[in-house]
Each structure stands twice: as C-alpha cells, then as structure tokens.
User: Fold this.
Amino acid sequence: MKEHTNKNKRFTKILEVLKTEGNALTKYLAGILQASEATIRREITEPASRDHFPTKRVYGEQFTP
Assistant:
C-alpha cells in the first residue's frame, strides 16, 4: 500500500512540474523526487499509454505538448 501511495505522490509532483515548467529532464525529476530515472520514465509511460496522458518524450526529457 505504501508503494502505491508513493507512486501517486511522485506522479502528482511530476504533473505539477510539467504544468509549471512545461518540460523537465528525467534526471531533474529523478533528483527532486529521489527516485531513479527508470522509475520516472516508467511512471510517466504507464499512464500515457493507458490514459492517453498528454506528454511527449524527447531523449532525456518529458514535456506536455
């Protein structure tokens, strides 16, 4: 249960950063969220494919179109 809560908190923070800044490096998100870059990519990719989440991935970066 705790892992699910952490995942939701990380995803909420990712959304905040993308809404505020428009884009973010995966490395930057990993640093502020104290998670691996792989975790950040996975947590963005899963909702994007399932829920048509509006992000575009560019090498090393996530942004909202």
Summary: The beta strands are 23-25, 56-58, 61-63. Residues 2-48 form one domain. The first helix runs from residue 2 to 21. The longest strand covers residues 23-25.
